[in-house]
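Why do we care about 3D structure at all? Because function follows from shape, and shape follows, mostly, from sequence. That is the central idea of this module. The next example makes it concrete: a single protein chain, its amino acid sequence, and then its structure expressed as tokens.
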Amino acid sequence: MEEIIKKFSEEHEGVSVTKDEQTYRVMVENSDWHERNVTRYLVDKVKGLEAFQLVLREEEDFTKLSEVLSKEPELFEDFLAVSFSGRVEVYLNNIGRSAYYRFRERSDPIEIEVNYHRNELRIQIKQEESKETSIGILASLMRGVRFPRRASTILAIEGLERPTSEGLESDVRNIINSVLFDIECSYGLVFETANIENYKSRPIGRRNNFDALPEAPVQLIYKEYIPELIEYFHIAQKVDYLPFKYICYFHVVEYFMDKAAYALVSRKIKNLMSNPDFHIKSNEYISQAINIFKKENEKYTTDKIKIGRVLREYVEKDSILGHIENLELTGHFTKEYNLQCAKTLNICAITIDNDNAFYDTLTKRIYALRCSIVHSNPDFDESKAVPFISTPENMNFLRDEIELLREISRRIIVNSIA
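And the structure:
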């Protein structure tokens, strides 16, 4: 093995290979625990795969990985797929069981022909031994693969010779959406792409600072969390497609948009009624109350204002700033961005040195992205929203934005029971 590793390191300059020996406790048939020693090799800094850690166990793993790297594959940014020599291979997860068994027993691939923007595509969906395709090899070696297995479901595309202006990855996403949904509706086979973010090695500064698992009993306080909010939060955790993930977290904010307006109106009315001279100037105060109700009517109050109220009501500025600092993303959120979509989408910087400006700019940033993703009609200097386009650059930007919205939704869930 040492010679194999040496040869691999020489062929791939800068690569890091670390021997990792671990002891696991496993249960045998008679319910006794036995210790098992396992040796594996953690491979980092592979050219083109710098964001990932690969786990290799056998000499064959090094040989297969070298074969893949010799093709100079280009890894996609959003989902687990590679392109090389005019061919695209996409790794699929099955999310339906009953019909999947029919497909697994099939030896021949499903062959599909599609015309996509004057490209005559030849597509195959097939079960392959994981180490027989480039993407299957990478998926089997990547640390974090959900269910490592001998066979993988691969979607292969050939003939995409003229990508559109949106780029190859966006084109492949469009093709997959069309083909897989038709296959699902026609044959009951349900597949989805694998979110590549699940397989990336996280830098130390970007990890959540969770406490170590407790050794002693833990005393918890019963809390009446709102079930719908926890469900939204968990759905967001499960969703792979980043724009949908963003909207799922936004649903937690949206849940309180009208409730926050109700709370504000309630406070204002109570303040009016608490005036010592209310019994003397009742007509005047009632007129003020009517105006308050008018202003809070949806006709007069935009979603942007409602979002701002929710953030001010349930989210502490210091906790959010501490969170993005821990993630080493302060520079990202205090910077203005211009995303390239059908038109330029301006995303304002978040001002952190003033409370009012902080909430105003945080609201504007969240609102602009939300409207762009759902194609709503916002009021950020456009007559209509600029639809979000899932280019690699925009998706990378959205990943960091999700880190912020996830923490905001978590704080709202926690603080809403107070």
